[in-house]
Amino acid sequence: MSNYAVTLFAEIKKKELSGFILKSKSPSCGIKDVKLFDGVKETAGQKEATSGIFGEGVLREFAALAVEDEGRLTNFTIRESFLAKIFAHAEFIKVKKSGKIKELGVFQARNKLLLLAFNEKEMRLLGKIAANSVKKPVKEIMKEYEEHLLLALSKPLNPKAVINVLQHAFGYFKEQLGKEEKQYFLSVLDNFKKGRLPLSVVTGILMLWILKYKVTYLQEQTFFSPYPKELADISDSGKGR
Q1: How far apart are CA 3 and CA 80, in angstroms?
Q2: What gap in Å lies between CA 153 and CA 117, rounded to an integer?
Q3: Angle at CA 167, nearest 5°, toward 106 and 222?
Q4: What is the bridge-based pairing of β-strands 66-69 and 19-22?
Q5: Residues 6 or more apart whose Cβ sits within 8 Å of residue 217
């Protein structure tokens, strides 16, 4: 398995990947919950939970990419962060292949709120890189941008930052919405804060208002549709965040 991993990783690195979904608890592919025993006899006791042989290699060789197992993805909070990372990076790959700084600027603008929800510090740094005020070569800029993009997406969506983004977007409609609509949205937002609803439910409500009142800036933000709607699923493992 170790030899297979080395060979496969060499091939994978020639391609543009955005992440991995591995099998939970698998002695080969698990990433966190593989049982490790202190011997091979039936009486051997379990020492700890660890990574599988292949999974450990993935975590080591592709540490910057999104890596999850199918068990953890039953949690809608983990799933939403994972899908947002995958599709943001996949979209950037297209931008990188275009070789156009203008396209990078558009990508940065469209993903501003999403990046803010992940990591505000990196979001602002990415803006400076995309602006390319020092006129660096395009390939150098793309490489630097990708490194910081993956760093920005390295941790799950920041709950407090997500709430701030949602409240910021809600502020665009305070003049158009009635009292009952505002109260309803705030109750939904409160349920999201408490982990009872996925983010897609809250952004879905906002998206209706974005389309109705034609708020172009928000309509173009990937935060409100970070991955294909076919992947949206309100089911959850019940294990919380």
Answers
A1: 33
A2: 10
A3: 25
A4: parallel
A5: none
Structure-token pair, residue 232: 């949206």
Taking the whole predicted model, whether its pTM rises above 0.85 is answered as yes
CA distance 76 to 80: 6
**Rounded to an integer, what distance in angstroms lies between the CA atom of residue 36 and that of residue 39?**
9
Summarised one tens digit per residue, pLDDT across range 77-123 is 899 999 999 999 999 999 999 999 999 999 999 999 999 999 999 99
- Give the C-alpha separation, 205 to 121, whole Å: 28
The fraction of the chain above a pLDDT of 90, given in percent, is: 80
Element (H, E) at 26: none
Q: Looking at residue 40, what DSSP letter applies?
A: S
Helix then strand count (H, E) for the chain reads: 11, 4
User: What residues are paired with 67 via a beta bridge?
Assistant: 20
Q: Are 67 and 19 in contact (CB under 8 A)?
A: yes
Sequence-distant (≥ 6) Cβ neighbours of residue 70 within 8 angstroms: 21, 22, 23, 24
Phi, psi at residue 143, to the nearest 5°?
A: -65, -45
Condensed to tens digits (0 to 9), the pLDDT of residues 21-38 reads 999 999 999 998 898 888
Domain boundaries of the chain, sorted by first residue:
2-70, 76-152, 159-231
The angle at the Cα of 127, spanning 121 to 132, to the nearest 5 degrees, equals 135
Residues 150-180 pLDDT 10s: 999 999 999 999 999 999 999 999 899 999 9
Token couple for 184: 């309803």
